[in-house]
Amino acid sequence: MAQTQTPSFRLIFRKIFRRHPLVVVFLFLLCVIFVLGILLAIRRCSGPSNGYGGETDGTLVASARFDSIVMRSQSKVYGLPIEAFEVQTGEIESGETFSRLLNQRYNVNIAVVNRLLALSKGRFEPRDIRAGRTYTAFLTPDSAQTLCYLVYERNQTDYVTFSLCDSIYVRVDKKEVVTEERYAEGTISSSLYATIYENNLPVVLGERMAKIYQSVIDFFALQKGDKFRVLYEEQFIDTASVGVGTIYGVEFVHAGKSYWACRFNQDDEWGYWDDKGVNLKQAMLKAPLSFSARITSRFGSRIHPIKRIRRQHNGVDYACPVGTPVHAVASGVVTRRGWDPFGGGWRIWIKHAGGYESAYLHLSRFAVQQGQRVSQGQVIGYSGNSGGSTGPHLDYRLKKNGKYINPLTNTSQPSTPIRSGNKAAFEQAKRDVRKVMDAYAAKK
What we know:
The chain has 444 residues and is an alpha+beta fold.
């Protein structure tokens, strides 16, 4: 009996290929792609152990897939990776020394402490460590919690790093100060100080604006509804505001009148000029105090607060705490310094150019000597409650050609205006500042 012959695989393949050649080619290519995909996946999973797509001998080699590797970033404080340590923050206690901090709090060997003290010479004196200042300790994350680094903050920007682990060293550094452009607006409710506070703006910004306008705006006579807008730089360390940098431009609206201030450099000196190119720095300040004081009595006839009779008041009274700095309203020479026998208490008289004299009464102490030449804005003394006074205040008086005049209505000549050769550059600077301020205002 004849046996049935089973067709071989080769015969079946030939038969299929003759009838369906394209299908066979397609299946072959599909198998090749599948095999190559498996090999590529195996290579990726079992790639170099260094994690950089390079050889394992330590040499970094470029890889076509390097851009697909995600590198995990490390958070750093004072330049140290906090993820690698147990981080503790504290304050220096009263009477605590550097040696006690390291030896008793963190069990650092006294020999290491002495080594750090020796390395600190000429860079930082550990005996200058002050109670209440912040320090940060970087400890190993194991059960031993060995101190590796101690960072002491000297102030807002400066800090000292003491290294105790891999190598012992002392390094003095500064935190990075980031400057950002800022735009702010405010409407006066009671005072400039209150408005700055209500809008959560830096106090120094108000002080700087008051200084810019100190010769043209009486900040003790601001009215409800007065407003301002300002373009400036604010400085930050981490997320904390640490100061105000350049103020590029300000618009202050007082009593319905707009006062512009644009920063410009003329004769190698930066200053502020108004919309018409008039210098805002004038020969005499409007007041001898900062904007935080308030007027309690003006120039003119009044009932004397002690004698209770009507008489002429030849000055302007500013209520302010004892010890408030008093500034010279103009450059000049101190002609009198001492006790006033007529109830003015401790007082200073200054002679200025143009026939002017200024007086500052009821002081608590002096900051200048008689005969000394002083400059505009210089601190000459501190307010008090001396002499015939019913409370802490400053009595400021002004004479011109020997006659008392009202300091609040006096006008003085401005400093050098924009020169003709600088007018085009000034106009361009003014347009640039306004354009940026208007753009910020449009977003609000």
